[in-house]
Amino acid sequence: MIKIKTEIWLGIDLGTSTTKVYLKDKGFIAEIPTVIAFNKRNQSILAIGEEARKMIGKNPAYIEVIKPVNFGIVTNFDEALYFLEEILRNIKKDYFSLFGLRVLIGIPLNLTEVQKRGVIDVGKGVGARNVYLVEEPIAFALGANLDIDEAKGVLVVDIGGGTTDIALISLGGVVIGKSIKIGGEIFNQNIIEYVKEKYEIIIGESQAAEAKLKVGSLNNRLQPASFLLKGRDIYSGLPKEVNFTSNDLRESIFDSLLEIASNLKDIINMAPPDLLGDVTTLGIFLGGGGSLIEGIDSFLEKEVKIKVNLVEEPKFAVIRGIGKIIEDFERYRKFLINV
Q: 107, 124, 175, 332: most buried by Cβ count inside 10 Å?
């Protein structure tokens, strides 16, 4: 039975790897791979989300598999529009709105005005009468229940699928911050290049992502996890199998982690002394899907010499913050960048 709502009020964390959706009064309702597949023969949408993701690297020429968001930026406008329309269509199966749709979308730091307009246009394109934007570090901090209203320095690091956002926040705004093009998908590419060089085997993106998740740790445990990679020998072209271990994971993404640490050091070095004192006392707050690899927190802590706190349910901090804004909009609207 369809439920009638005054309006449909959606929060969207439109990520490079996955898109998370929050519905006002309902809560977190979906996490969907940000992938869409088209049948080019009849110009139709074949699949979105997980079904489309499974087609990556396995599709024939007439099926086009597209990731509409890259490094946190909408790079394929029409595909992003189709993707969100499909999500909205599923929601409308259960809800009818009297006064239309409102949307709040999280965006990385440092987007240009043109890139912000692109995100707004996607929201407008699916029929939203109002599209609001919030910088993801702000949403992250709210979702992690950090007090960012005070004159106090709060330093957050959000390792997402396409980007890592680093931001020093005080008095409700970003004092210093940067978004770098390193995240879970870059880790996948690191793994692909590493096993090609070390083990002389070619694997695809899906298998690299699975290996990263299954091993899931940079640490050598008493019972270390490993993952059997099945690929193609670069010389013979024949099938080849190798065991991918936590040591391999650590070595493969080490340079990317060093770059995150280097950019984090830059923010720390630029921080006003009084705010840096707060950071030293409170520590750094780490989250995002990329932070779920065990040992990244201790790696960064060792590099920057400041305690690193992994937030609760780090993968969902941003969408929790977006939900908090939606549920108490008048209180939190001051954190939005286009109201």
A: 107
